[in-house]
Fold each of these.
Amino acid sequence: MSIVPPGGPVPAVGPGSVVVDRYRLEQTTTSDLAEAGVWQATDVILDRPVRVTFLGGPHAAGALDAARRAALVSDPRLARVLDVGTTRAGEGTLDYVITEPYSGSTLTEIVSSGLVDAQQARAIVGEAAAALDVAAQRGVHHLALRPDAVRVDGHRVVVTGLGLDAGLAGVDGAGADGAASDARDLAALAYYCLTARWAGDSLDEPWLASGVVRPLPAQVDVTGAPVSLSAIVPHVDPTLDTVVGRTLASAPGGATSPAALADALKPWGEVSVVASLPEFVQPPAGGVPTRQSVYPAGAPGVATPGVPVRRPTGRIARSSAVGVGGMAATAAGVAGAGMAGATPPPPPPPPPAQPYGGGYAAAPSYPPTGAQPTAQPTAYPAATAQMPPTPAQQPYAQDYGQPPEQPPAGFATESVPRRRGVNPTPIVLGLVIVAVVLMAGWALSNTFHPFSPAASSNPSATVSADKGGASHKPSPGTPSPSPTVEVRPVIAQAAQIGPAQQCAGEQPEAAPLAVDGDPSTFWFSCTYRSDTFGGLKQGIGLAVTLREAAPVTSVTLLTNSTGGNVEIRKTTADKPTDGPILAQGPIAPTTELKFAQPEVGTSFVIWITQLPQTNGQNRIELNEITLQ
């Protein structure tokens, strides 16, 4: 029983919930699948982000089986399936699929910013076709390609939802039919990149969420086929136009598989989201604009074309004898030039020298300018009046009847005041010296006492009691056990086992096919007259050896058989029936046998005590063995 509501989060879990004692849920995220609740989560064992999808609806079981097959496919352009299973939540069960987090932007988001150019569409679809070709070689097809199932992350194309999306949609296809369906959808993706219209099968399906943005269908010609790209997009790539048109129409010469489509599109360039944007949002080809220090010919307000421009800086030129009038006039000229946005006006004519303190102050001189004459600012009276003595000069004026010698007119400069504060250099040097002394003392201590026992840092050391009741505490010098890191079970090899009585059809050399990661190959037994091996033996099976000891919680068998009985024992090949029975049950196309508790070991035996039925005959065909 599934408790996943269509298109919504799972009510039995929430932020902070931990699924199967491993995946801590953080927050919900979006999905275009109607029967899925998706969460961002963290793998608390490996400390990495993951994507948790809870499945619901009538096709949840089929989606789990499809996801298990997709987990056997490995390619950097495919979103990896990390874990698949069912767990209890409240009074029901939850079907879940754990995948890598989805990164980058979907084709829907990219095309919403602008149509993709032909070369980028060719590169994106080519990368997706090459990835799906790897999956097709494993017997897995996507069957639910759409713009939201293809993402661009930097220079990498990622295809999401392999196996899972088609399982929730209830779509099934294998062999040449599945490959042809993926090829047509890939051609429709190229058509969508260039036109923003969908030329594939209709996306108005109930397995897609109702709030998902669906692209408009492609326009069709009189024959009912989509209008060719060359009729819509000017100067389109002829190769891309031909391949897409023939593949969508299933015409001769069109691609019938992702591999054929990838070969037809080769070669393609590097994928770049920036390059796929339209030209009007591309960065300028000339790079960063540079400042222009020369006005172009015919610029307004410039008498001589092409002359260098002296831009106003707001500074006032200094002079050794600039009076108050010169200061005011210069400031007025600069302010007027800055406000008008043009070259500053020429300065006023120098005023006549006026007597001051028994002498004369020279008028400021200005360089000639080539600009046209403008209105002259009026001279201020302060430029011709004698400056009154300051209060500090009053005694001199009273005692001597004249002001003291004045410094030269102009701007008086001041030294920049020193910034007061704490000098951090002595503090930093002191801290460095203290650190060096402490490190030297620690090094000397370890040198002269290299074998001193370290005190135990485990405050929760257990106390054991013997038969007499005396307690024994761990000695202070006993080191605390280091925390163990979980090891994933990795199968090294598999070998057929059984009694010496064998029929002529036994195939022990085919045992490695059950652990080669390819579900299209299988190990099979001899065909017997009865499901009890015709009275020749008590059982037959495979011994699975791991690369190193690892905890195992369940065993999944992919078979072509039904019925019979199989046992999972923790033992070795020479003693197949001596170990304890960890799990047992009838054989099905997907047989998942869970243990009561994790079992750590290096050898497990899959022991068949009763033969299942395969095409109406008493034999076993075992495609793949997976340990969790």
Amino acid sequence: MKSIILAGGEGTRLRPISLNIPKPMVRLFDQPILTHTLNLLKQNGIEDACLTLGFLPHIITDHFGDGSAHGMRLTHHIEENPLGTAGSVAACADFIGQDPILILSGDAVCDFDLRQCIQFHQNKGADVTIVLYAHPAPLEYGLVMTDSDGRIERFIEKPPWNQVFTNRINTGIYILSPSVLQEIPANTSYDFARDLFPQLLASGQKLYGFEATGYWCDIGSPEAYLQCAIDALDNRLTLNLGSEQQRQGLWSHTPIPPGVTILEPCYIGKHVTLEPGARIGPHAILGANTHISAGAAVARSMVDGATLGPDTRLDGVIVGQNASLRRGSLLHEGSVIGDGTILGECSVVDPKVRIWPGKELPSGSRIKENLVAGQPRSGLRFSGGGAIRGETDLVITPEACLAIGSAIGIEGRVGVSYSGEAAAHLAARAIACGVSAVGGHTLELDAPFEAAASYAADLYDLPRTVFVREQDGTLHLKVYGPRGLPITRTEERKIESALTAGDLHRAKGKSIGHSTAATGTLEAYIASAASWGIPPGTPIPFAVEVTGPGAANRALKRTLERMNVPLATHGWGVPVFETAGGGMTLRAEDEEGHTLEPERLLAILVLLELESGAKAVAVPYAAPKALDHLAQGFNAKLLRLGRDKGAEDLYYRLPHLRDGVFAACRLVGAMATLGQSLHTISQRAPHFRTARREVPIQGDRAALMQALATTAPPDQTELIEGLRIPVASGWVHVSPATGRPVLKIHSESISMEAAEEICLDFAKRLEALDQI
């Protein structure tokens, strides 16, 4: 049997441990978690595996290659766009063939007997077998209920206690018969637990659950990560630690010098130096190249290649590579120190505080809050386009939201809306309180998705509007300025400066502000989008299908119904629309089933404007370069935001270029008035292909960007949002990632092969420059 390992995780909840590497590459006893997963497969007679990759994929491909060094035959599948767990597997159909396939998560650790699981699947003649585990704390996982024969009766996704009817959780280990893959839609984000399995259960397919014995742990948080290592030392988890026990409870690659106290169980990696007087254990995991000074004490902690000064104290702590904790530092339980961070002498880190990589703190520091990107929680940073995101109650706390409201409330009138989740609602209320604290007026908007919030900013002439949504434990905030456009970088800096100061603003010389509920916003949005698409009464001789969940897609359906567009229930022979990004973007399929990604749809929409006689069209700066050539063919100008004067005003007047619902209406209107199918219209748009790649950087990103700029032709290179450089067969755009030591490469050419070749060439250039 072959296996597919889902290894594309970013590991946001595990940060800062996983900040600069894919989650499966986090080290456990000096080996990536993924190595332990491959060892498990080999122990169970499985040597063929395909890795599905997403976040920083080349770190994994560079480390494992074809798998031969690890006794495996490995295939890699890199996703350009997230496809969900099931969509990732479906994309590997060529690897799977016609035999059952074993699916595992690349960021969980277990010691199950997989042969037993496979035998169960075969004995039952199952379509799907889900491997279950009796977990003592099941609330954070999807629960699975079965009958006495193991046949699945019900799924319960991350329930409250009053819905916990079993402790058997879905481990993310599946065995699938090949026929099941046909139920997964192609090129679509589709999830096993959320989409596929409930669908199969409803249709009567044979779904079974097998409760495995042994150990299983999802490395989803620093606490779980540390506990997993402790469990391995206690022999609750059977794991190859790469060393024989020197004595009961001691695995050491390094000789223990005289004068060092070892309290088993402990793991000590290669090239670890221990000074006399150091006290190690119990439950200490010292990774390779760690240095422990005299008088230092490490218990129930992981130190991965860091230096601990004299008399430092760690209990229940994780310390990253190349970190340095100077003399007398005290770290309390649950704290996490990122790679390369330096704590000055006699510093104190409070319980559960996380410090991001590369920070340098002076002697005597007392760290009470998480340090992210150099600032405490209130020092939040925008990632561009008016967006802030962070973990709920860790990075974006209610206190941080109060500070955000205080910082933007000085504008006077602020619109606030949210997507419906409890965490988003709480954050929105905290922001509104901050606005009121400085005497501002909050308009509570019934705009349940981002595009509607952007529209509301223009509708009510608001200087600031904030939209909040929560997804998978992460809060996403978007701040809009006048006319519903994202705030500029200058405006972002003003807010960041206010947050960095740390003090909440207060109303001075004026009364506390108040809130007003604004109803009818969504209805106004739908009416405006419908009128944008087509004159009232225009006959629509074709049907359209709208797919996908969420408020934006529900609003799109209502908008098309208002236009008297027949809605189909299947996509064969009709155009299919689905909004994404909170309604800000649109994806489509034409009548022949060809996928039209957002960049392709933008090209079609620009074409329609030019064919309608427009002499200038404005697009985002990163829009395809092919659009410049398209505009030249019509003797028109293509303006790019951030580069060309007048682009923002023109972009504002064309909402279908920045709003997925308006875009769908514009396309339907064009099809009706031109009497042409979406496929026919799309064939007139320019053809181009794009590729993307991320390159991890060890050195200074700014210096590297400067070095790259000096090698590019100065008369043709643009320095706006990164570097846009012409090459023989197209263009390449290189820019630094926000908050991570990574450079992003986005190439464009006439074919996918050419675009990928450009990406690879520039990746090699950057890697070479990074070594200088």
Amino acid sequence: MTEKYVYRFTEGDKDMKDLLGGKGANLAEMKKLGIPVPPGFTITTEACRAYLKDDQVPESLDVEVTHALREVEQEMGKKLGDDSNPLLVSVRSGAKFSMPGMMETVLNIGLNDVSVEGLSKMSGSDRFAWDSYRRLIQMYGKTVLDIDGDLFSDALDGLKESKGIDNDVDLTVDDLKELVDQYKKIVRDATGEDFPQDPRKQMDLAIEAVFRSWNTERAHIYRRRERIPHDLGTAVNICTMVFGNMGDTSGTGVCFTRDPSTGHTGVYGDYLVNAQGEDVVAGIRNTLSLEDLEKIDKKSYDELLAVMEKLETHYRDMCDIEFTIENGKLWLLQTRVGKRTASAAFRIASQLVDERLITKDEALTRVTGEQLTQLLFPQFDADAKKEVITKAMAASPGAAVGEVVFNNAQAVERTNAGASVILVRRETNPDDLEGMVCSAGVLTARGGKTSHAAVVARGMGRCCVVGAEALTVNEAAGTVTVKGSDRVLKAGDIIAIDGSSGEVFYGDVPVVDSPVLTYISEGLEAGLAAAADEATKELVTAVDRILSHADEMRRLKVRANSDNPEDSERARAFGAEGIGLCRTEHMFLGDRRQLVEKVILAENEEQQEEAFKALRPLQRDDFVGILKAMDGLPTTVRLLDPPLHEFLPNLTDLSIKLAVKEAKGEEITAEEQKLYDTVRAQHEENPMLGLRGVRLGLKIRGLYYLQIRAIAEACAIRIQDGGDPRPEIMVPLIGSVRELQIIRDDAERIIGEVNEEYGTSLDLPIGCMIELPRAALTSHDIARAADFFSFGTNDLTQTTWGFSRDDVEATFFNEYFDLAVFGVSPFESIDVNGVGRLVKMGVDRGKDANPDIHCGVCGEHGGDPASIHFFEKAGLDYVSCSPFRVPVARLEAGRAAVANETEADFL
């Protein structure tokens, strides 16, 4: 049976995003709701994937498009490109996940030298017809024919300058005809062919252009950042054109059912009279507000508000809506759940609970750990002295300070040099994505809250200020002129932008802790006291409400990785329920390195024991401090893990030092020679797979004896001081149960000796890390000798993939991203199908063999939101992450608990 590639808007619904893309599915849903949507149809994502695979349009697609197009023609009583009553259509992308501005759109398909006259007669406006024609040639040339868009923009600007006008709407019919001729010449000069006059050819080539736009560099960059799979493809929506550029009774706009920047309820949006949709999104004209629309066209305004309420109630979320008014008739062109800032996400989720549109569980699914992270960033100090350059529109909150840069190349160059940068543009377009990604903030002279800069910045969590009309940005000259001032900014000048107030400052501005961070670390009362205004207090309250519910719902415990009392106290303040990884190798560096050298260089057990005696009280005091900070909570201490070479001088450095001495005729001492010989003997080609972890503990038995005794003695001391210490001893790099059994026997013997010395009855849990594939595969054996497992997913990823992390990320990961070998680094987010299977296997087999065993993860994945959702389904008991990520892990663990996900989603 032939694949069905085309669906009418009357055939789909909002649950068909995989097939119809977000835009197509939502157009179909609005049609079902009786909302005025122009007739049209959607070409599926499967058609796109087939095109990208075979580099040609599936044969049956042409036939299906013809049938669907004729149905639209019959419904409208028009024919595509007709010379008297032409049907015009738009060709727009629409992937499953929103990718604003990343792919292509072409409007006014069907216009040519003949049909433009028919459109003129049909509309009664020569100006409207010729304005539409020039727009088609401009968009088609840039999008379909891949002509430099600046050629068209320069021609338009040059014509306006020669006529002495500032705005496009002031161009006469003759001006527009002249512009069309110029645009045609640009097409001919660039391609060697005339602009296509066949309307069907225009549509077919536009469809292919949208398919190809899935694989543009900017689309790849965006998907990589947003973790969108590269193999989904985009749908294509063919929609009857309705025109906002037919005069003063027409217009186009974008609106939100709530403020996407703050989350406040109200009427928010941008509107342009006598314009088409791309004028609003591109930000090339500063917009009017929806309040202005109420004054201009009260009937359409009231209809729009009714539709906004209907859609928000139906989707039970803030909606982003594109609309056009054609001669007083309202048409809806798109809706989707709107992108929003982090602060807006928490406010809106809390508001929707109060309005009884969603439950508290659903509120958890409306926010993310990444958004919470953004709220923990610092803000500008309200009491600091500031020099205000201008105040514009606050589009995406945050506090950003950096050097002025004008384009992608400057942004990338200065960021790579370690600088913080602010991308300053007249307006942004999709090609600016690379610069936006590496900038601390974005500032534009034009545009509104729904412009490209604002929408993309909000989605990325970037600070953004738009519509700064007082600024004249001249990228070619590399200057920003401030109107009414002698101030001229140049590349490299330091500015600061406040995405919450819209203010732009000259020079550096100091920052202070976020009130949300104060709440996280000190409690609700302190967070509210730190809030500067009622809006911020509302935000702190919303975060508390949702995070508290996450704590109530989550099954996973959240611990922290900490090596010292200070970090341990911070982790506890952030809500950590224990220490999941206390690395001990850091305790042997600095002044203690020489003592470790003595252990390694010792010629007999007496010399080794002398070094151990010196180390033991130092190590014991380390553990006393950490156990005190985490009193009453589990503290998992990992025995020494790194290879010995990390505690010895570098072999190359030693070789050079001795060679230089020899060349100068200087004597090499016996100690220097002994050190060199030892370092050379200990040298390994691949030390991360060599003598480290438990292997080192079995070769130099005294090292682990020292650590185990120090842990036990610290525990005994804390008990004598009235404390409640709960240390757990963790053995790293276990590959065989026999390795763990030997260390466990030693540990139990040493703990028994400490009990006799201190009069205690310590029974400390002893477990191991699962960071080798063999350990996961034989976890049913290892579990019989372990009280707990902790999955070291960093090393488990290295050993499963055969990657050396320090090398691969810099050498070929970029190519792997481009080739879609993986969409995100497996060191950043768990490789579910590979490493994840080993984790799941280790948990299942371990608990089968030892039902009392508890399992956690202590790699960097423990703080990664996507990985936490996997760990919930894999059956882990806790995750452990850096102290700063503890609140994020708490939130994501709660979200994972209420998510309606199945094991099949992961494995």
